[in-house]
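Key result, reporting period 2: structure in, sequence out.
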């Protein structure tokens, strides 16, 4: 059985103060957008990124959704209103979790001089079907060339900028920390007393000699409170990761497929792997570095285990997507979206932390949008049956598992 292709930037591991890496990525075997499924780069850090007291950079937005046909997301159009500027993506679980809170704040402040603008670098073909499942009350702005992400120095999402009526940044924070009183202060021209977002770039800095490393491998114990992950085609940096999470990232392990037969250190680590211009070396170097540092060996082995299996049950209720539609998937505690049945199985594996296989035999692209009362199997399976006409059963299956054992010297 071939090993499944699983994207490494999954939300349970990559959380950075409830944050996700900013940029296009791949998850569940599907590209997150039609742009490039191999582009895992983050928005380039801007040393002049605005902070409290700075004038907010221009909003060079290519397209807007969810507002009047003539709505613009630029400071001329927003003049005279305070603005909550939220950087987000459909695939980012913490971003999705913040949407109901932002919607509630906008509803509470509907009569005030404030506007909510949510900026993503994804295309309309990806964002529009997402909004059908999880609406966003404010204006949705598409930063297709990612210039706004770069101008604002956004290194992780969700990130929230609070901009006053004069176009001055008053705070950089996370949406879930905002209160109605904070935004009333912003409207009144007062600086809200909100937690400031940490300098994400600084968290990942490593002491280096002058000049950029052409090849670098570093694994060190850490006591940092913050944890997170940065990745682009030439470099991976993990901050304050548990050993099992290091292995999950290094070997692209789907939840439920890691078999631990080794004793791991009771310690968190920082990891830096930079292969310069050799992206083909990134994965094997990362695997060797993590395994060597932890004193373990990791091998893929087929084992017969209890797995969830997606199967047909009567006539499926699937709505086809046009070829031009974007591809992607996401999952949160109360909803799931995918664009094919393999993507559905992949998201179920992350949600239920159990290997999940697609045995429907159904190919093609479909609009898969599920809502459920809780992330418990019974609730999710009921939603799948009622919405898609499919069933999920638990059965023994041979599954490729990553087995981790202590390294024995001399072998």
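The corresponding designed sequence is given below.
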């Amino acid at each position: 059985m071939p090993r499944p292709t699983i994207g490494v930037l999954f939300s349970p591991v990559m959380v950075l103060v409830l944050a996700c890496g900013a940029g296009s990525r791949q998850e569940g075997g599907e590209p997150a957008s039609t742009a490039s499924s191999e582009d895992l780069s983050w928005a380039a850090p801007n040393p002049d990124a605005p902070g409290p007291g700075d004038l907010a950079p221009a909003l060079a937005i290519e397209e807007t959704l969810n507002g009047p046909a003539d709505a613009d997301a630029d400071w001329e159009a927003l003049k005279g209103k305070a603005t909550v500027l939220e950087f987000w993506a459909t695939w980012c679980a913490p971003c999705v979790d913040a949407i109901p809170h932002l919607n509630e704040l906008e509803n509470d402040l509907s009569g005030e001089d404030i506007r909510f603008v949510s900026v993503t670098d994804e295309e309309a073909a990806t964002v529009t079907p997402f909004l059908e499942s999880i609406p966003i009350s404010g204006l949705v702005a598409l930063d297709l060339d990612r210039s706004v992400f770069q101008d604002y120095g956004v290194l992780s999402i969700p990130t929230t900028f609070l901009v006053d009526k004069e176009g001055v940044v008053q705070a950089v924070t996370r949406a879930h920390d905002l209160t109605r009183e904070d935004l009333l202060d912003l409207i009144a021209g007062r600086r809200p007393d909100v937690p400031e977002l940490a300098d994400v770039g600084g968290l990942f800095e490593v002491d280096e000699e002058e000049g950029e490393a052409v090849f670098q491998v570093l694994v060190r114990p850490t006591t940092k409170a913050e944890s997170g992950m940065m990745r682009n085609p030439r470099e991976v940096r993990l901050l304050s990761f548990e050993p099992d999470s290091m292995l999950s990232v290094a070997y692209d392990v789907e939840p439920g497929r890691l078999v631990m037969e080794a004793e791991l250190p009771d310690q968190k680590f920082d990891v830096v792997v930079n292969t310069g211009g050799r992206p083909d070396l990134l994965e094997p170097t990362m695997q060797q570095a993590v395994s060597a540092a932890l004193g373990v060996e990791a091998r893929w082995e087929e084992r017969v285990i209890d797995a969830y299996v997606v199967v047909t049950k009567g006539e499926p209720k699937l709505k086809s997507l046009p070829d031009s539609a974007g591809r992607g998937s996401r999952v949160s505690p109360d909803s799931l979206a995918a664009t094919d049945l393999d993507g559905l199985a992949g998201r179920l594996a992350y949600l239920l932390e159990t290997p999940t296989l697609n045995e429907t035999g159904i190919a093609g692209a479909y609009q898969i949008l599920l809502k459920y009362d809780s992330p418990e199997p019974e609730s999710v399976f009921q939603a799948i049956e009622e919405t898609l006409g499919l069933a999920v059963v638990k059965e023994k299956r041979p599954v490729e598992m990553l087995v981790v054992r202590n390294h024995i010297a001399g072998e």
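DSSP finds ten helices and 21 strands in the chain. Residues 93-108 form the longest helix (16 residues). This case is discussed further under Risks and Mitigation.
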